[in-house]
Amino acid sequence: MAFHGAGWWAYISHDEKNERPTISRALLYRVWEFARPYRLKTLALIFTILLITALTLLSPLLLRQLIDVAIPEKDMTRLTLLAFSMVAIPLVNGLIGIWQRKLNSEIGEGVIYDLRRGLYAHMQRMSLRFFTETRTGELMSRLNNDVIGAQRAVSETIVTIVTNIIFLIGSLAIMFALEWRLTLLGLAILPLFVLPARRIGRRLRTLHRQSLEHNAEMNATMNETLNVSGAMLVKLFGREKQELARFGKDAAMVRNIGVQQAVVSRTFFMMLGVVGAVGTAVVYWVGGYMAIADALTVGTIVALGAYLTQVYSPLMALTNAPVEFAQSMVSFERVFEVLDIPIEIQEKPEAVALEGVYGEAEAASGRIQFQNVSFSYQKEGERVGLAEVARMGWGGDREAHLKRGKERQEKEGKNGHAANGHSLEEIESLAPAELTPEKRYALQDISFTIEPGQLVALVGPSGAGKTTITYLLPRLYDPTEGHILIDGRDLKDVTLESLADNIGMVTQESYLFYDTIRANLLYARLHASEAEMVAAAKAANIHDFVMSLPDRYDTVVGERGYRLSGGERQRIAIARVVLKNPRILVLDEATSHLDSVSEALIQEALQRIMQGRSSLVIAHRLSTILAADKILVMDKGRLVEQGKHEELLAQGGLYATLYETQFKPVEVV
After folding, report:
1. Which of 182, 351, 578, 638 is the most buried (most CB within 10 A)?
2. What local confidence, expressed as pLDDT, does residue 13 receive?
3. What are phi and psi of 457, to 5 degrees?
């Protein structure tokens, strides 16, 4: 029995007891906007569908001619033409099918390219807040699974529905023209199949959801234990056997469910085959009786039987076409959800560029002003991260998720209560605003100035807001209140590209791509010369080490740079900033966890590159603090003291306490 597309799976996977997916005119319009560039190819695709359908519908009519005319009349010419046609039709159909497949692939792959590029571009423009509030796995899912799902909706689901509609209309028209009574008789058996099919569908839906859950657990285990940090933790605690057992348990569940799915799916196909056989048998039996009574020709009976076997599958699929189509649109909804998240850090149309980079004729001077700056990591009124969206038809089940959440909390002994003192039942009915905690400011009313070429040190206890200040300067975040100025211009009035060109930042955790040392250095300036790259490496005290490696600058650093030591990674990161040659430096002196040799090399490199540049440094060493033109003392998000070392010591405040407890002892040692 021929099957037209994969519509049967969406049909049997739907359960009326669950929430039906819905589509709107706005959603369809947005989908059309992505399909619009391919409208000519879409028309050509529909044309191929019409051709293939027409040729396919000719085959049973050829059989009728063969049985009713050519053989009884012993017409060899007609017989030869019919035989030739029976070979030519599949050949022409196949050639048109190749063209159809090409068009279909070009449309589908084109849509997937446009969606992926649009999503990636939008994510690249998101603020750091978006990435801290969104799981990496969810982002990857949107870029991969959901985009592929959207492509499938365009190149498979919609094409299948159109093909089934055209084929069904054509088949039924011919069947009713041949013998309307036998046609109705053949179709009358279809309702007898619906109820058993729905029961099998519910079972398959449950199995598929369970498969997704256990696959997710299995993938989570792999993601957690097969990265560098996870693998190291497993080895350090000797938990290889336990992790293998955990992975094996989920893998076994996936295996067992896969076997059950295969058996249940085969049962469905068997039932469909039986229905087709019964329908065909009834048509042949009644038709045979009519042929004996000379009310019908044998060729007509054969043609009707052939059409009937091809009609059941598309007819079954089209009974649930609206739900199948709505399910296929869910991937577009998930993609559009990302595209609809507002871009927090936006560039004004009239934004101006800072003048060049350090060392050029018209470089930015590097005067920095914080004016009454307050900042909170909580964003009011706008959703920043990605919401969990159920995949209708692919295992999404809100009640099941809530049930698992309750079971998880019960196991943790929380007695069904969650954060903020609400029970889980209450949480389900609360509006998002009711669950939002009171806003907490990471910075409050911060004001200071860094003159061109000055070195300013940030000190304070953990959680004081030092890192937050360094995030605001390159516009990784925007202030909640107040203004930040460079050379008298508000950061929001400056182009993002020129801001990035003029600010160089070295964080405590230096990130390197899985690539060569050369590629990681040239990431700062893609077209820098070999001499410039080497000079930057020398300035960061890393050149001699690189030259000692077998592949030198073409050495691959490994995942996150873990083939190198912490000090080596840090010096490469510093060399990368030196090669960028920015006017303003933002540094987190990450030397406390390094050996004394690496620390000394990094300190020497930092002192060299800070000369003549405006520098904002989170200071960990007394030598940096003593060299600073100004020290900013932070505590609980506020700037509590500022001045030079001797002035702050004389005040006997927080800085004096920090000096006695943190800096002085370290310097003495």
Report:
1. 578
2. 38
3. -100, 135
